Amino acid sequence: MIKITFCPTCGSSNIKKVRKDWSDNFRGQQYIVPSLEFYECPDCGEKIYDREAMRKIEAISPAYSKKREKKVELMLEEQE
Ligand SMILES: [Zn+2]
C-alpha cells in the first residue's frame, strides 16, 4: 500500500486510509467492492486508489467485464 500523508488535490493532511465497501455505478448498474482499502480526503472528498485497489475494482466493475468476455471468447476459439 502506498503511503499518502496529504491530499494531492487540496493539500489537507486529514486524508487517511479507509477500509470499507466501495460502490459505484456503471451505466445504471451498481456494483460493490467489499472492504476495499483506499485513501479518502474528508475535506474535498478526493479518493485515491493504489494498484491493488484498482485491481479489485477492475475485477468487479462491469466497465471492465467486456475485456474478460473477449478473453474467454479467444480461449474458446482456440479450442475449436
Ligand atoms: Zn482533499
SSE map:
Elements (H helix, E strand, L loop, with lengths): L15 E11 L2 E12 L6 E2 L2 H10 L4 H15 L1
Antiparallel strand pairs: 1-2, 2-3
How would you characterize the overall build of this protein?
The chain has 80 residues and is of the alpha+beta class. It contains 2 helices and 3 strands, in the order βββαα. A 3-stranded antiparallel β-sheet has the order 1-2-3. The structure holds zinc ion. Zinc ion binds at residues 7, 9-10, 12, 41, 43-44, 46.
Helix content: 25-40%
CATH T-level fold name: Ubiquitin-like (UB roll)
Largest sheet: 3 strands, antiparallel
**Strand-and-helix sequence, N→C?**
EEEHH
Q: CATH class, please? A: Alpha Beta
Mean pLDDT: 85
Q: What ranges have pLDDT less than 50 throughout 5 or more consecutive residues?
A: none
What's this model, at a glance?
The protein has 80 residues and is of the alpha+beta class. 31% of the residues lie in helices and 31% in strands.
